Fold:
Amino acid sequence: MNEVLLPTLVVLSTLLAGAALVAVLDQAVAGMIAGRPVRGLLSATFARGMLLWLRPDSTTEHPDALLWRLAPAAYLVLAALGLAVVPWSADFVPVRLPTGVVLWGAVEALATVVIFLEGWAPNAPLPLLGGYRHVAAGLSYILVSMFVLIGVALPAESLSFDAVIDSQQDLWNVVRQPLGLPLFLVVGLGIGVWGPLRFADAADLAGGTTAETSGPRRLAWALGRGAMLVAFSAVAASAFFGGWLGPWLPGPMWLLLKMLLVLVLLVVIGRLLARMAPERFVGLAWLLLLPLSFVDLLWAGLLALYG
Amino acid sequence: MDLLILAVIALSALALGLLVQRPRPGAALPPWPARTTYLGGGEPATHAWNRFHVRYYPMTLLLIAFEMEMMFMYPWAVVYVAEGLKALVEMGMFLAILGVGILYAWREGALRWQ
Amino acid sequence: MAVSWLSALAARGSVPVYPAVGPAMADQVRRLALEPDLELVSTPRLASVLLVAGVVPSSADVALRRVHAQLPRPCGTLWYRSRPFPELDHPQVVDAPELIPGALRELHRVVLHSPRDQEPMLLPDAPPAPFEGRGDHGQGGEGMMGGMPYGRPMAMTADDLRDGLALDAIDFTLGPFFRGLPPGLVLELRVQGDVVQQCTVQAPPYAEPVAAPFLQALERPVPIVALELARARHHLRRLADALDLAGLDALGRRLLRAAAGLVLGQRLRWLRPMLKGSGLLASVGAGRGVLSDTQASEIGGSAARAAGLSIDARMGDRGYAQLGFEPIVQPRGKEVAGDIRARWRQWLDEIDQSLRLAAHAADIDAHTAKIGVVEGPGGRLATDQPLPDTGPVLETLLPGCEWNQALAVIASLPLAAAATPGAEAGA
Structure:
């Protein structure tokens, strides 16, 4: 029983705490950029979440009620699946899968579906536009992510995150494969609907897929987004920063520190860069990012053979 | 066993995600004016669901080609170091052919919003 | 018991307010964005309080009722210098701008703690169209897609502007209180995919009152310092709107704060690198929203100068000539003269120029020399001049634009400015 309960608790509590942390970081960075740092960040963030919990749900004339209920929950499920394959130490990984990278690829692909459904379900023009725009970006960055992760898997000779972390005993992948992390961060922005790739919840669509959601459903969506960013940061920390490797401190502590680093990076990028036009991002992804990921793969391959 | 844990994690995350939304199955729907879609005070003339003109559909064909290539890459990554340079050259050829596909799509305007 | 403890916690957070902006109120609402515990939300679904600012004209009455109905009950409404709906028994009315934040907080607290007082629905509780048709699901009508399932028709196919594939197009009216548009602008749009096919301006944006120095300059010489600082403030606020559209609302608030606190001697050197670095200009493509020469000269002002036309009422003014004034004009490329980016760059350049001119003018205490005509922040102002009408321009510029480009076009064009003194201008 403990074998099942402990991993579940670890994953879910990390997602919940991490999503709250993302909200706090976001408010902190926004306050710094706006020139007036927010005081009482933790209570302010908690109060906003509590307000969303207490406000009533709103609905539209003829939504797809089932999908509207399932989409935010499915987003959280995908984040949980992604986080479940990340090892916390040499002994503890919630789900020991020999093909963790494949599962993460599936999570990224399904995230596009979930975000689209969140836009489809309300049967309203603005959310629908947001959903369809996101699909364009989602189909473009998925390949970049896959090539980068395969590049990380090459020296590990395996698709499990345990082996990927083992292969970084001498040198972290962020140094060994320098192109990998910037490309992977773009993917993280995409699956988290964040910053320059925030097509689904866009400000010019009055909140896009969330234009008709209020109350607890909005809270669930924000929770799912934060959770997805946390899961992504765990995968990025494992793939590029050596996961739980590190001297003096216990493994899980190192993983949390590296996740925090990636989260801070993502939040700062999200608040500093303007949202791109979807068409431009599609062009950028296929013409610049994808060839760069080819180069990254070639580099990783040569290094694995002769390095 | 691991798959069981994965399933439990997925189901509990689903339960958590649904509970956070505080579904009230028997609650009455709000009145009709509260259910109009938000358009800044404007009004929609039709339902939003439609045969949406997806302008990036040529790009999706290109994606399918690359997805098949991804299927090849997963096992390739595992045996790569054992196979050596031959494997790299084979993958390079595959990617080069697909790269020509990207070039073609670009010149044909598949990456522009039709 | 637990619920009231939770709602006490929630009441301590920021108040989500949806502002329904009426005529001459845009600058005051922008100032509210700087309040620390107010949050101006983009959709009424998130709001607990509706702020109606300004006397909403009767043509926008139904739209206001719709927005009012879309706030989830329980909610509150605050009427600032406005005429409340006659059906309301005890409307909360406020007249002084400094009382708004306190009143909003109080309404929010009431909404959270005593949700018994329901704000009434001001529209009849009836489906948009009777949909008991002939069939079991309300279907029945002409053709395959006729009828009004669940109260509205389904979208029908229409030709597309960009390629020959004719799929469905949705029609809707984007109303006067949409947060991405200037207040009062009502657009009737036909959108296929996310590209605007047709655009009709049903109501022009509300005219914003010009800052006091510009109105005074029409009648008598005015210190150039005041004029140029007011111009810089106006451009900063418009750039903040563009940043809000691009998702950079924190940076937008920084600009609004800079505009509110703009004094002589500041140069805002951080503005250009932050804006360029944020990728705002890169986020819209080049060559979008290009104004033709006739359109640009009609609109005048910074839009014309961004299109490469050297039109500026400050030329030929002795006061400005003393300062060595030269109108800034964006260079005309092969095809990208006068696009969205050029207009935004023009605002940036003019902010720099205005701050430089103000600093120089303060040294020699320069005053304007021309009266009757002044270069307002949006364009040329003259006494008894009719308001410029950007409606036809929008109807030609928007079709063929993707959604974000369409809103960026609107955010880059100057708003109609009233050359008559209105209530408190935003200087």
